[in-house]
Structure formats: structure tokens, C-alpha cells
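Quick one, C-alpha cells below. Sequence please?
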């Protein structure tokens, strides 16, 4: 591999320091502030993880109760946001809705104290699901939903607002686990975008708006939606195998596979695969799970490329009845915790992030007056 290819996309370049997560030490493994992702996913809730990331320690029972109550009290939207959500077309992508909603919240509740990022994070975490589902229901059937669902957790609130009724315990737990898995991941592209914006001394909402826009693309958060679209294309595992081989021959990218840091295993994929397996109860979801397993087998056999978190998350979300265009917004709800913690960390020891570039353009040349110029190719 040429030196140019090896560092293209900043691959392998260490761009700063963080206490928030360790990713892929020796090609595998993930910890949030030293706690293994396996332990957090099995035992914690998103609120515990959010508190850990943003405030620095796992909350004691009283702290957790207070934190949950605070988030619950912050769910209502200002009327200006509701009116704007009504104006955004129902055909917009939900990621664009969240990007706009976050930006508008920054206009209405502008951050003036850089030490208030944790409070800004609480408000945004609490309101992002309200924004998405207000917009969704308004454009689906004209209803203006309220925000008083009696759900103490973010996981329950998301499912309740989407479906309009209390979720099952199994669904609530699956959503909580998924949010934990998606919460934080070191210097991924969207987090780095948030840190770059923060490094200019910009405000909290600008940093998160940058991050949402960066997460939207298919090479990053958008991959969970693209993975679902792929899985749904195939009637059965044999068709999936045949078509996949063709895609690989044509050098097409298979969404939900590969990772910049993990080479042997994305530990979150192993966890979410079991969540997806448990949720795949209906014949239709069992079929989609079998198709997914075959795609995984073929990718490993042919290319030695692993599933990343996005692949089986797609199956899990589909089984939970979540519309595919809402998959990446769920990633936003979760990653807002990690982004916020990174904004706080960046501010603690800030220096403008501004890398250099190798100039590969023209040699110096004289300016040509406009009446002496010709159009290229003419
Ligand atoms: C939560 C997340 O954001 S995780 C990432 C989600 N994104 C996806 O799932 C999109 C699909 N995956 C990809 O495009 C890539 O694997 C990325 C963007 C995640 C990582 O990109 P990079 O680190 O630049 O890829 P990397 O250098 O490891 O690629 C090595 C080789 O494997 C190939 N490869 C990597 N991923 C895939 C894939 N999903 N499908 C097919 N081939 C792949 C590359 O094309 C490259 O082949 P080449 O050497 O012949 O050019
Ligand atoms: O770390 C990355 O490159 C992508 C990411 O956000 C994740 O895997 O959660």
C-alpha cells in the first residue's frame, strides 16, 4: 500500500486524545470510560451511559432517578419548533428533520455559557424524539401528538411516541441496548465533525448540527438504512448469496460491513446480532434474519470483511416495527450522548483543529485578464 493510500481519509492518524472510549485496541474491544461494552449493554440503561459519558461516572441510584426525572421534564417542544416541523415536507428525510430541529433549538435556546453544555445536552436528548415523532405523525395523519407519555426512559419514550402505545418490556430492553451500543465511538467522522466545530469556539447546537449532517451519509450512520434496503431485496438466503457474489464482482460496497478500526470483530455487532435473533419471531423477520446471516457468511468467506454495528441493528429495528428511514435518527438519539461528552472534553483543553494538506495543484502562473481567457475545450 502506498503511503498516500495508507493515510488517505486520515486512516491510522492519531488526531487527539480522549478519555471517553477505547476502540479496537489490538483490532477488537470497546470500553466507555473503562467499562466494557458487553457489561454496559447487559446491565445498564441509556441514561446510565449518558451520565457516565457526560458527567464522568456511573450514577448512583439517586443520581439516576434525578437524571431520568430531569430528562422527562424537558421533553416538550417550543411552539415555534412545532410550527416549523409542520412546514417541513412530509417527504423530507428524517435526518434532515433532526438537523433542522437541532439548529432551530439553537436559535430559540441559544447557548451563551460554554460551561452549560451538559444542560444543553439534556434538553436536546429529551427533545430529539419529540421533534422526529411530532413531524412524523403530523405528516402521516395530521395529528399533533403530545409529549406526556409516562415513560421514564428514553428507550420507552421513543417506542411509545412512534407506535402511540406503551411498548413491551422486551422491546424496551432491546431499544435500550441498541442505544447503549450506538452511544459513543471515539473519533468517528461525526464526532470529529463536532469536535472541529467546537474547536473554533462555536456553540453546542452548531457542533451537534455538524455531527448530524456528517452522520447522515451511507459510509457512516446511513449504513443501517442502506443495510436494510439490501437485506429486503432478497427472497431467501440462496438468492442473497447469488446476488451478493455479483455485487462483489462488480466491486460494489456492501453496507453494514467493514470498519475503519475493527478488523476482526465489531464487538457491538456480536451483541446486536443476538438482540436481532431474539426479536425475529415472525416468519417474515426470521426470513430476513436468515438472509442476513447468509450475507454475513458470504462476506467473510469471500472477503474476510466483518459486520459492523449497523448490519444487525437493521434487523433488530425492523423487528421492532421501526420504519427504515428512522434507523439513522435512532443513531442520532444515542450518539448525542457521545457527541456532547466530546464537546465538553474538547472545550476543556481546546486548540483549533486545522490539519495541513499536500498541495498538488498548478505551479505558480500569471493572472490572465478576462478578455484574453478561453473556455476549457474550446
Ligand atoms: C457505525 C458506523 O458508522 S460503522 C460504518 C458504517 N458504514 C458502512 O457499513 C459502509 C460500508 N463500509 C465501508 O464503506 C467501509 O468499510 C468503511 C467506510 C466503513 C471503512 O472504510 P475504509 O477504512 O476506508 O475501508 P478499508 O480501507 O478497510 O477497505 C479495505 C478494502 O475492503 C473493501 N471494503 C471495505 N468495506 C467494504 C464493504 N462494506 N463492501 C465491500 N468492500 C469493502 C474496500 O473497498 C477496500 O478494497 P480495496 O483494497 O480493493 O480498495
Ligand atoms: O467509529 C467509526 O468509524 C464509525 C462509528 O461511529 C461507529 O462504528 O460507531
Amino acid at each position: 500500500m502506498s503511503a498516500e493510500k495508507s493515510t488517505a481519509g486520515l486512516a491510522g492518524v492519531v488526531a487527539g486524545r480522549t478519555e471517553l472510549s477505547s476502540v479496537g485496541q489490538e483490532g477488537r474491544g470497546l470500553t466507555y470510560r473503562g467499562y466494557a461494552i458487553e457489561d454496559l449493554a447487559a446491565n445498564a440503561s441509556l441514561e446510565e451511559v449518558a451520565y457516565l459519558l457526560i458527567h464522568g461516572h456511573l450514577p448512583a441510584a439517586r443520581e439516576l432517578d434525578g437524571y431520568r426525572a430531569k430528562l422527562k421534564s424537558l421533553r416538550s417542544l417550543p411552539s415555534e419548533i412545532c410550527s416549523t416541523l409542520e412546514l417541513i415536507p412530509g417527504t423530507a428525510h428524517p435526518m434532515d428533520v433532526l438537523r433542522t430541529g437541532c439548529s432551530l433549538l439553537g436559535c430559540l435556546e441559544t447557548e451563551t455559557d460554554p460551561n452549560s453544555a451538559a444542560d444543553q445536552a439534556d434538553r436536546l436528548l429529551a427533545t430529539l424524539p419529540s421533534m422526529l415523532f411530532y413531524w412524523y405523525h403530523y405528516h402521516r395523519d395530521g395529528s399533533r401528538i403530545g409529549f406526556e407519555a409516562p415513560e421514564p426512559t428514553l428507550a420507552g419514550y421513543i417506542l411509545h411516541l412512534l407506535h402511540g402505545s406503551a411498548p413491551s418490556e422486551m422491546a424496551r430492553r432491546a431499544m435500550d441496548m441498541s442505544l447503549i451500543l450506538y452511544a459513543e465511538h471515539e473519533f468517528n467522522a461525526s464526532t470529529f465533525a463536532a469536535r472541529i466545530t467546537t474547536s473554533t469556539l462555536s456553540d453546542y447546537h452548531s457542533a451537534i448540527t455538524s455531527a448530524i449532517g456528517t452522520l447522515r451519509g451511507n459510509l457512516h450512520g446511513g449504513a443501517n438504512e442502506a443495510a436494510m434496503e439490501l437485506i429486503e431485496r432478497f427472497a431467501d438466503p440462496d438468492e442473497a448469496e447469488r446476488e451478493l457474489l455479483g455485487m462483489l464482482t462488480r466491486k460494489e460496497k456492501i453496507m453494514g460491513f467493514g470498519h475503519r478500526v475493527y478488523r476482526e470483530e465489531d464487538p457491538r455487532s456480536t451483541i446486536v446480532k443476538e438482540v436481532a435473533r431474539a426479536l425475529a419471531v415472525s416468519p417474515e423477520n426470521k426470513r430476513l434474519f436468515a438472509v442476513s446471516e447468509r450475507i454475513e457468511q458470504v462476506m467473510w468467506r469471500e472477503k474476510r470483511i466483518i459486520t459492523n454495528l449497523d448490519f444487525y441493528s437493521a434487523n433488530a429495528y425492523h423487528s421492532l416495527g421501526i420504519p427504515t428511514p428512522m434507523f439513522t435518527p435512532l443513531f442520532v438519539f444515542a450518539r448525542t450522548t457521545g457527541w456532547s461528552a466530546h464537546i465538553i472534553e474538547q472545550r476543556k483543553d481546546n486548540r483549533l483543529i486545522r490539519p495541513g494538506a499536500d498541495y498538488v495543484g498548478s505551479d505558480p502562473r500569471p493572472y490572465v485578464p478576462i478578455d484574453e481567457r478561453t473556455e476549457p475545450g474550446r
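Residues 85 and 369 are 49 Å apart (CA to CA). Residues 9, 11, 219-221, 223, 253-260, 305, 308-310 surround acetyl coenzyme *A (ligand 1) (CB under 6 Å).
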